[in-house]
Each structure stands twice: as C-alpha cells, then as structure tokens.
Amino acid sequence: AIPLVVAINTSLAARNGMLVRDRIAMERARTLDTVVFDKTGTLTEGEQGVVDIATVDGVSEDEALALAATVEGDSEHMIARAIREAADERGLERGTATDFEALKGKGVRATVDGAALRAAGLSRGDEPRDGERVHVGGPNLLSELEGGMPTDLERFADRAGENAQTVVYLIREGDPVAAFALADVVREESYRVVDALHELGLEVAMLTGDSEDVARAVADDLGIDTVFAEVLPEDKDEKITELQAQGKSVAMVGDGVNDAPALTRADIGIAIGSGTDVAVQSADIILVKNNPMDVVRLVKLSRASYRKMQ
Ligand code: ADP
Ligand code: MG
C-alpha cells in the first residue's frame, strides 16, 4: 500500500503541475544539495534564430546559408530549424545532398552533389567534385576536424560568444567557410528559479553541449554556481556522477533526448513537460506546466510534507 503521506503528496504535486512517476523521488527532494539544469530549452526558450552571418572571401551569405540549410536536411534540432527558416526567409533554394548524418551533440554532415553546388553558385571554382562532404556544427565538431579557423570567423565567433550567442560553422572538406550566430532568450522564470534555489540553500549548476563562452555568459547572467560546457550527450551523465562522488544529492532538469542518461543517473530526474518523449520517460517527475519554477515548489513541498512525518 502507498503510505498516506505519499499519496497526499502526490496529489498535492499534481495540483501544482507536477506529474510524479517515482514517488520516492518526492521524498528525496527535501535532501537535495544541487540542481543541474540543461541550458537550451530549459533555462532558455530554446527558440533560436540566426542573427548574424560571417563568411570567408569569395562566399556570399546567401550561398553559405543555402548550403547549410541543404546539409541540415530535415534534422529536428533547433539549430537546424533556425538555419532552414533563415534560408526560407531569404527565399533561397536548397541544393541536393545524400548520406545525411547527425553527429549527436556536434552537428550534421551530408554529401553534396558537385553539380548542385555549381548550379547554386557554391562551387569554389576548382575542379568539379562528385560528392563533397559538408558539415555544419559547433565547437565539439571543430575539435575533430583538422582545418584551421580563418581569423575573420574566429573574431566573429568571439564577439558572438560574448553576447551569449551560439555559433555554428559551415565546413567544406574540413575547412570552415562560414559561421552563423544564433540568439536564444533566457526565460524570465530562470532568474527567479536560481535565486529561490539559492535561498533554499541549494547549489545550481548548468550542463550543456554549447560552447564555454555561451554557457559562461548565460550562467553569469543567472548567477549559476557551476558550469559544464561542450559536454557530449554521452558524457552528460558522467557530470552527474562527478557531483554525486562529492557526496551530493543531485537533481537534473532537462528537456532533450540528450538529457535522458543524465536524468536517469541523477537522484531525481526532472523533465520539462514539453520536452521530448525520451526525456519524459527517463524522468522521475515531469513539470507539466513547463515552468522551471516548479522545481522550487517541489523542494518546498517535499520539505514541508516529510518534516511532518518524522
Ligand atoms: P544542448 O546540450 O545545449 O541541449 P546539443 O547537445 O543538442 O545542445 O548540441 C550541442 C552542440 O552541438 C550545439 O550547441 C551545436 O554546436 C552542435 N549541434 C548539434 N546539432 C546540430 C545541428 N543539427 N546543426 C548544427 N549544430 C549542431
Ligand atoms: Mg535542451
């Protein structure tokens, strides 16, 4: 049988917009030390838009955008959607490509038809190629590629990073030829969440695949204590383990497929209700109203109820 206090709690939680999949998690919430948040889509709106483009000599913004949109194919990633939207807004035709591949936490890759490249005015003017490998991706992808970064693109990325904008690169045969800056908006509630968790004596951390610069800018803005940036999806749960090894009881809050292993690993996994199915299925508690402030309510509710029990 379910102890009465737990049953009461669960219905209280439900009334507060929380769906409790693991009742014990409700009880554990009162002893938490650290709350770790995913950045994109959790602390931020996650609706990014392309706000700036830089290209190397000989490549126009339109060419770069059309090619990037081609390579993103039908990827569901928010960055992919933003790039396709920007290309559509400019009325750009997409080229043809094959062998689409998603590189989790890094970017995408496809083989672009040489003839299509030339037809779109995207050929570099050198010998026609049968198939050219083109990537679009961020810092985790760059660290794998050998090509050097053109100074112009490097400067563009530094400036964007300072403004908390995410930068992804268009890379042809290993050489970066353009960069796109994407702006996301920090959710209004996120400021209050961090303050309220601090008031409850909890530590707040951020875990993201995005660049160190962007993560730092958002964390500083919000007053977050610890930042884990440029973390690959398969390494996210290790960061939770690191915190647990320091003797901390850890909650993870996330929305993406990438967050699932970390949600499972955490002492309490909390999914944003509008998140992906995989995240929701990996969580102990689901925030139905998509409001991160409900994390604060969860801790308060747990402390209030279980105090009575002792
Ligand atoms: P987060 O941890 O912030 O939710 P992801 O793990 O989904 O982010 O992605 C991490 C990084 O990988 C992004 O910031 C971006 O640099 C790169 N990336 C992932 N998917 C794509 C894509 N479809 N197009 C371009 N870049 C991508
Ligand atoms: Mg996310």
From TrEMBL:
What organism, scientifically named, is this protein from?
Natrinema zhouii
One of the record's GO cellular component terms: plasma membrane
Record-level GO BP terms: copper ion homeostasis
Q: Which family does it belong to?
A: Belongs to the cation transport ATPase (P-type) (TC 3.A.3) family. Type IB subfamily.
Q: What is its main location?
A: membrane
Compartments annotated for it: namely: Cell membrane
GO MF terms held by the record: ATP binding; ATP hydrolysis activity; copper ion binding; P-type divalent copper transporter activity
Respond yes or no to whether keyword Transport is given for this record: yes
Which keywords does this Swiss-Prot/TrEMBL entry list?
Answer: ATP-binding, Cell membrane, Ion transport, Magnesium, Membrane, Metal-binding, Nucleotide-binding, Phosphoprotein, Translocase, Transmembrane, Transmembrane helix, Transport
Chloroplast: present as a keyword of the record?
A: no
In Swiss-Prot or TrEMBL terms, this protein is called Heavy metal translocating P-type ATPase
